[in-house]
Amino acid sequence: AQLSESSRAASAMAGALLGVAFLVRGLGDMASPGGSTLSWFSPLGWSLQTAPYVLNHWWPLWLLVALTACSVGVAFLLQSRRDLGIGWLRAGRGRPHARAHLGSPFGLAWRLQRGALLGWAAAIVVFALIDGGFAQTMLDAAAEMPPILTDMFGGTAGLADGYAAFLAEYSGYLAVAHVVFAAHILTGEEQSGRADAVLATPTSRISWAGTHYLVIAMGVVAVLTVAGLASGVAFAAVTADTAMIGTLIAAHLNLVPAVWVMVALMAVLFGWAPRLLTVVGWVAAGMVFFFGLFARIMDLPEWVIGLSPLSHPAQLPVEDFSATPLLVLTLITAAGVGLGLIGLRRRQIMNRA
Fold it and tell me: Are 220 and 179 in contact (CB under 8 A)?
């Protein structure tokens, strides 16, 4: 936060750093089950070195405490030596003239959403590559895995297909988080006053917000397609099963309408209750993640599991494809976005600049 001039840039840097830490730890763990030397270069690997119930090493946790203390100290030092409102990394001046496509609502929406989309796409692809690369390790360890874990992937006999379905669903969770993050760009534009400048032109509220929703929805398709390709290539590279490339792409695309439902939820919140968008949006994303990973293990009722839109599409390739849930989810998305745009037309635009 002290390095950047805006919260958006700070979030992007934090996300990139987290992605690098996850990649380094993942590569280190792939090199050695207990973690190799490379794993020590990632803070995400330090807590695993405690080996609870086995070695019970406490000292790696002090590394995390020390890193936190040093980071906070450096942050206060940087804060005391920078100008208020200016980060240590100065933003560039930008182009002297805008490109032609910025003269349209869609072009402006794409320009504003581009950074978030590319950042989240890169992170999701990294996760997909690493997780797909663990496929053969999962298959080799199937006999030694506890039943509660193998049941998550459909049993030992169908472990490969079950793990493929899990890879797609996990990418869906991350895509949901991207949707919530991307929706905050609209609130940022409104609260900064920049939306007033756009809406003072012949641009309508519907075209202004609607193009953002369109870009976010298209981004979901692109992100899940690339994630499916990445996980499929990694899966095929370690198992020599090239058919999994197409299977995983299809499994990822099968979840697109479910992730679109989150676009509808963000549209409704932004149109009718923008002050609740942050809290409700992230709580909803957390619920989708929690229900998807733990609901069935905890034997929660089916209606609770059904609160997550990602629970409704068929789990490819474990289950057969079904178009009906996808159609229903798409209609819900269209209705939700429409309702949100109606609310946006009726409410007052907030300006906190």
Answer: yes
Residue 220 contacts residue 351 (beta carbons within 8 Å)? no
Alpha-carbon span 73 to 67, nearest angstrom: 10
| Burial (Cβ within 10 Å: 0-12, 13-18, ≥19) of residue 62 | exposed
Determine the Cα–Cα distance for residues 101 and 123; give it in Å rounded to an integer. Answer: 27
Answer yes or no: is pLDDT of 353 > 50: no
Q: What does pTM read for this prediction?
A: 0.83
- Identify which of 123, 133, 125, 126 has the alpha carbon closest to the alpha carbon of residue 31: 133
Tokens standing for 127?
A: 């996760």
Contact 49, 57 (CB under 8 A): yes
Helix axes 243-253, 159-192, angle to 10 degrees: 40
CA quadruple 335, 337, 342, 345: dihedral, nearest 10: -170
Asked if 49 and 60 touch (Cβ cutoff 8 Å), the reply is yes
Q: Do residues 194 and 186 lie in contact, with contact meaning Cβ atoms separated by under 8 Å?
A: no
Q: How many residues does the chain have?
A: 353
- 342 contacts: CB under 8 Å, gap ≥ 6: 271
Q: Tokens for 40?
A: 């020590």
pLDDT tens digits for range 318-350: 999 999 999 999 999 999 999 999 999 999 887
* C-alpha closest to that of 39 among 238, 50, 58: 50
CB atoms near residue 42 (< 10 Å): 20
Token pair listed for 263? 């676009």
Please give the Cα distance from 211 to 203 (Å, whole number): 11
pLDDT at residue 335, rounded to an integer: 98
| Cα(249)–Cα(228) distance, integer angstroms | 4
CA dist 221 and 172 (Å) reads 11
| Residue for token pair 């229900």 | 291
Question: What pLDDT, in 10s, does the model give residues 99-153?
Answer: 777 889 999 999 999 988 988 898 898 889 888 988 888 888 777 777 777 677 7
